[in-house]
Structures are given as C-alpha cells and as structure tokens.
Design goal:
Length: 377
C-alpha cells in the first residue's frame, strides 16, 4: 500500500480510534457554486434617481444595469428596522402597478448579497414596505413589496466521495467481515508524510464498499458527505503542509487568493492553545513583500507573531480576540512592517461587491487604536 494520505475514523472518535488508512480520495473537493442569479419583482414602486433612469433604459433597450440595491425594511412608523440587499442588479421590465396605477412594478435579475441577515426580507406588521437605496446609500425611491420568482432549474447533485486503497481496521474491519450494510458515520482527515493529521476534510456516512484494485486486502469506500467539502484550494495548502507544520517562512505566498484563505483555517487548526504568550514589550517583524490582499496580511501577521504556519487572526474581529491574550503575543508590543508600500498599493483595490476589503490605512488605524506600536519600514 502506498503512503496513506487520509485517515478514516468515527465522526465523534477521540484519540487513535482509526477505522482505515486510505491511499487517496476522489471527488473530495468542492467549491461552493457562485451565488445564483434570481428574478425578483419590485411591486408598488415609486422609483427615483438611477433606478428611475434604469427602468426607462430597460423599456428602450430590453434591460439595463443598476448595480447594488439595498432594501431598507421599514417598521410601521416608517423607520429603518433592518436592511436586505441585492447585487449586480439588472432591470428587465417596467409596467404600471396592478394595485395602484400611480406606481410601477419592476422586474429585476440579481444575486442575493451573502451578507443578508435572512433569506428573504421580513417586514414587521403594518410596515409600509421598503426604502430603496443605491450602493452609496443614495435614495432610489420606495417599494411596497418584493417577490422572488422561483427558479425551475433542478439543484445540482454532488457525487459521493470515493476513498481508494483503504486498509480497514477495528470496528470497520469487523463490520466488513460480517457483511453489515450499515457501516456508520465517519470523519476523514488529511495526513502528512509522517502520518500526523493536517486537517479534517469531511464528515459523512459510509454507504458502500468494493474490493480495491490497489492491493490485496484493500477496499474502496463510498462516503456520502453531510458536512461541507473542503474547497479546491485546500489541496495546494495541504501539499505545503505535507511535511508537517512549515518550517520555511512565506510558503503561504505560493497560494492563490482562495489558498491564502484556507491557509488561515489550517493555521488556526494547528494553533497551540496551551502555549504561553510572549512577554509584553516584544518586537515582531512583519514581512510585507507578499501582502497583496487582506488574507495575505493575516497570513504574514500570524507568521510574524507565531512563526511559519502561525495564526494571529483572520479578520479584524478575530484579531481583536487574539490581542486579548492566549494567542502568542501580549500587548503592548511593537510591529515592524517591512515593505509596507506593497500593502499600501494593493490593499482595498478589489472591486466592491457587497463589503469591500479593508485598505492599508484602515488596517493601520485598527492596529494603532488597539495600542500596537506600528513602525513602517
């Protein structure tokens, strides 16, 4: 059997209760599909500004781009109660409102914002409807109701995960020898070259097995996931952690943007919770040569504080938690930011879709507000 890349155990197992060591896995990785575009009816609208101009263009051209649209949910007194947003909106149709000919019904195509607090706007009792706002909170009129037109396309069905060349042991070996059909609920973990766990991959139900072509006594198992699959970018991160926690600084910079995001989750999983913080007053050196986005900043910051593969937050809220102690550094401390001009040039420049990324100046201001002595080099 070739070097196992995965270990299978009971999903709630602790310690070394391994069911099988597996040479490889197929159909394991799965990126979430891009947010689906849907069709929505804005009913009883009094459009203003850009929305009013877009409906006129749609009438002439068949459709018109609008951008981001925020529906400010009003309470019975007409005050803001909550908000709900659509992104990349395109106006498709404009017609008189069936209930009030002084108003308009608009059909739009859009994506729901991933930051919406719920799946559909929830109006309080006796609410007059919504106040419509643009991306910079400019007023675009009002709307009495919103209806989502259901999509008739079937949902995509993901394939099961196939675990190849598995050497079963323990309760799994017993279940296979007895011909049991219910093989149980399992957890799959990625291993490094020394057989140490790198990161949990997926959880699910073992539903089938066949003898494996990879060797005598080995089996191929079929696992139906119930947890989210690891993203495709996890594979490049796991390859860089294949020899254990990295000893070489800056390996995270070899990853793409999605890989840098997953690097942070892997680093968090390997944080040593019982390791004491360094004494306050320490100086940490932030290598800024590869900080071209916010994820890169947090990868570099974790490395500056806790060494290669280290973690010290993956967002401002998480960073604030780390600064309270227990994550490697104790305030006050000094952060020397080398090659800071790279981040000054690159951060905050991704086109805005919902929440824009933080700029260099915003990150710097946050650190200073938290009492960190930042020195740009």
């Amino acid at each position: 059997m070739r070097r196992p890349r995965y270990a299978l155990s009971a999903y709630d197992a602790e310690g070394d209760a391994i069911w099988a060591l597996c040479a490889d896995a197929e159909d394991l990785f799965g990126d979430p599909p891009p947010p689906a575009r849907g069709t929505y009816e804005l009913l009883g609208c009094a459009p203003e500004g850009k929305l009013d101009r877009a409906r006129a263009h749609a009438r002439a051209d068949g459709s018109a781009p609008l951008g981001s649209l925020t529906l400010e949910i009003l309470d019975k007194e007409g005050r803001r109660a909550e908000e709900w947003s659509l992104e990349d909106v395109r106006v498709l149709d404009d017609r008189p409102c069936a209930r009030d000919l002084s108003l308009r019904d608009l059909t739009v195509e859009a994506r729901e914002s991933p930051h919406n607090p719920f799946d559909h706007p929830q109006r309080p009792p006796l609410s007059p409807g919504y106040r419509l706002l643009g991306a910079e909170a400019e007023p675009w009129g009002t709307c009495r109701d919103l209806a989502h037109v259901p999509d008739s396309r079937p949902d995509l069905v993901e394939p099961p995960v196939r675990l190849l060349g598995c050497a079963p042991r323990g309760v799994l070996r017993t279940a296979l020898d007895a011909g049991e059909e219910d093989l149980g609920h399992a957890k799959l973990v990625r291993l490094d070259t020394a057989g140490r766990p790198v990161q949990s991959a997926v959880e699910g139900e073992l539903v089938a097995w066949i003898p494996s072509a990879r060797g005598r006594g080995l089996v191929d198992l079929t696992l139906e996931p119930w947890s989210e699959r690891p993203p495709t970018a996890a594979e490049e991160v796991w390859d860089l952690w294949d020899g254990g926690r990295p000893a070489e600084p800056g390996l995270w910079s070899r990853c793409g943007a999605a890989g840098r995001r997953h690097w942070l989750t892997t680093a968090l999983d390997h944080h040593e919770a019982d390791r004491p913080d360094a004494d306050s007053g320490a100086t940490y050196h932030l290598d800024g040569r590869h900080i071209i986005d916010v994820q890169g900043f947090f990868c570099a910051l974790g490395e500056a504080v806790n060494g290669p593969g280290g973690y010290f937050g993956w967002g401002l809220d998480a960073l604030a938690d780390c600064l309270r102690g227990g994550w490697g550094a104790r305030r006050p401390f000094t952060l020397v930011w080398h090659d800071a001009q790279v981040a000054r040039t690159c951060l905050g420049l991704v086109p805005r879709t919902g929440r824009r990324p933080w700029t260099f100046e915003e990150l710097l201001a946050f650190l200073l507000d938290e009492g960190i002595d930042v020195r740009l080099a």
